[in-house]
Amino acid sequence: MELSQIEAFLAVVREGSFTEAAHRLNLTQPSLSARIQQLERYLGGQLFLRNKRPIQLTTLGKIFLDYAERAVGILEAGYTAVQAAKTGKIGRVTVTCPFSLATYLLPEVVRRFTSEYPQADLLIEAGHSEFAVNQLLDGVVDLALAAAFPRFLAQAHTLLRLHDEMVVATSPLHPLAHAKGIPVQRLWDFQILIIHWGAAFDAYIESLRQMSGGGMHSVVRVPLAAALPMARQPNTVTFVPRRLTAVSGLVPLDVPDFHFPWDAVLLTRHGRLLTPLEQAFVDTVSAVWYSHQPA
């Protein structure tokens, strides 16, 4: 039994005529009839009642029809899968990223990527930046998003650099929410919530605190997941990437003397070539980042 015989059988079923089926397949009628006869000999019985107009299936033909359609459908699906693999439409992308980027960047990245590549598997882990880079270097994942710390840049190959900055952020109901030109020392009159963004940022905040005299309130240090609900309290001040403010219900304060760049990078291992699907993921991250510029 050959595929050309099955295709001839299905063409006759769909057209209801040997003549029309031969025309559809660009065959002569004798060639088409020969294919049907060879298939019937292989199956051991007639598939069509040839004295009926339009041609009708025998009982054997009706039984065989479902299997023939499924066989051709499976082969067509196989062809589609192979072509998708050749063009990078299927496969797997593995990535680890910090919790902050998982909150405000990845939801739209995942939506766009899975819409464009519905047959691709996307495996995502979340943790702090050092965890993400270690997962990459250990070969657990092939892509990692992380803070743009110099030691991370030295350890891996940078695919994208995403520019952001830390801002002072509060609830929209905070007394300073709509103020202009806020002095740094005013921040310490409120409850300060410190998220661990790394030793360099901790040192920067501590230097501001010392220069400002420390204020009346103690400093509370919490992980990001716990910090965001607490930061929405109307008497609290925290520090987050600008892009995180919109999705977390916070607003950035106008503090002219507060400056701390906070770039992120998308990394892979040195010397590693991206698959077409991974490159598509990188392109999606870039497109999402630059299509959502914060105010």
The biggest sheet, with number of strands, parallel, antiparallel or mixed sense and barrel status, is: 5 strands, mixed
One letter per element, helices H and strands E, the order comes to HHHEEHEHHEHEHEEEHEHEHEEH
Enumerate how many helices there are, as a single number.
12
CA-based shape: elongated
Number of domains: 3
Placed side by side, the strands forming the largest sheet appear as 4-3-5-12-6
Structural class: alpha/beta
Helix content: 40-55%
Instruction: Tell me the radius of gyration.
Output: 32 Å
CATH C-level label of the largest domain: Alpha Beta
Please explain how this structure is put together.
The termini are far apart. Helix 2 packs across helix 3. The chain is an alpha/beta fold and 295 residues long. The chain has three domains: 3-86, Arc Repressor Mutant, subunit A (Orthogonal Bundle), CATH 1.10.10.10; 91-163 and 263-291, Periplasmic binding protein-like II (D-Maltodextrin-Binding Protein, domain 2, 3-Layer(aba) Sandwich), CATH 3.40.190.10; 166-252, D-Maltodextrin-Binding Protein, domain 2. The chain is elongated. It has twelve helices and twelve strands. The chain has a five-stranded mixed beta sheet, sandwiched between helices.
